[in-house]
Amino acid sequence: MTREEIRNHYRALRKEFTPEQCIYYSQQVTNNFLRNWMFNHKLIHCFLPIHRLREVDTIPLVKRLRQNNRVCIPVSNFDKNNMTHKILDEHTQFQDNAYGIPEPMTGEDVNVKDIQVVIVPLLAVDQHGNRLGYGKGFYDRFLAECSPETLFIGVTMFDIHDDLTEIDEFDIPLHYVVTPKGVLQTTAEQPAPLR
Ligand SMILES: Nc1nc2c(c(=O)[nH]1)N(C=O)[C@@H](CNc1ccc(C(=O)N[C@@H](CCC(=O)O)C(=O)O)cc1)CN2
Ligand SMILES: Nc1ncnc2c1ncn2[C@@H]1O[C@H](COP(=O)(O)OP(=O)(O)OP(=O)(O)O)[C@@H](O)[C@H]1O
Asked: How confident is the model at residue 178 (pLDDT cuts 50, 70, 90)?
């Protein structure tokens, strides 16, 4: 399958999910994540879900992680296909952008180099951590800017895809993937343990 065929395959599977299935699988992903990592005093980056596209609902995960960490949320710029990032606090107000992505309207801007963990959305991922998103390169660009010590964790409601061939020259592999079945460490070279 080509990259576009794989994208379409997972888009179609997601469309068949009911809201209840989406909640159920999201809870399993959240539980598996938190069983593996709580983190403490870290700066963690997490996307908020496009509900319409049945993405993993990261909101309960964000709430839990924020108890012991600082959490930042991206703001997407669809002219440049890049993102800025704002710290979440108890006053943060959100507004959906034109693609239905909830975004913080206020908050302290984050320096990308300070981010220690990134929770990454995806359509498909393989055991090597190679990932396929919606194809605009937002996360390829963002992960390339991060520090070499940053941990990249993908979350998905589907199983790992057999090898994604046709890897893009810009593809940055993920270190871990969390699915409803569990947590997988990929074959990508791992960063130094977080301090
Ligand atoms: N929650 C979330 N935020 C994210 C991403 C993501 O995957 N998930 N992205 C990751 O890179 C970037 C946004 N990427 C996007 C790229 C294209 C479309 C888009 O074209 N949507 C179409 C059709 C999508 C479909 O059917 O699958 C639409 O909204 O109609 C949406 C988001 C940055 N922020
Ligand atoms: N660091 C980069 N600098 C310039 N262009 C890039 C960079 N990363 C990716 N691109 C371009 O962005 C486009 C989309 O890349 P790709 O198909 O890998 O997106 P994706 O990973 O599926 O999407 P996303 O990251 O938005 O979820 C490609 O045309 C690629 O050449």
From this structure: very high
Q: Give the model confidence (pLDDT) of 154-169 as tens digits.
A: 999 999 998 787 777 7
pTM check: above 0.90: yes
Is ipTM over 0.95?
A: no
Separation of alpha carbons 40 and 148, rounded Å: 20
Which of the listed residues 57, 58, 101 should we mutate to test ligand 1's pocket, taking the one with most ligand atoms within 8 A of CB?
A: 101
**Any ligand 2 atom below 6 A from CB of 138:** yes
Q: pLDDT grade, residue 72 (50/70/90)?
A: very high
DSSP per-residue letters across 99-115: TS-EEESS--B--GGG-
**Domains defined along the chain, listed by start:** 3-185 (3.40.50.10420)
Tell me the best of 26, 45, 99 to mutate to test the pocket of ligand 1, counting ligand atoms within 8 Å of each CB and taking the most. Answer: 99
Residue 121 token pair: 């959305």
Q: How far is the CA of 55 from the centre of ligand 1 (A)?
A: 10
Task: Please give the torsion angle defined by the CA atoms of residues 131, 134, 135 and 139, in that order, rounded to the nearest 10 degrees.
Answer: -60
152 in Cβ contact with 177 (< 8 Å)? no
CB 136 less than 6 A from any atom of ligand 2: yes
**Cβ of 134 less than 6 Å from ligand 2:** yes
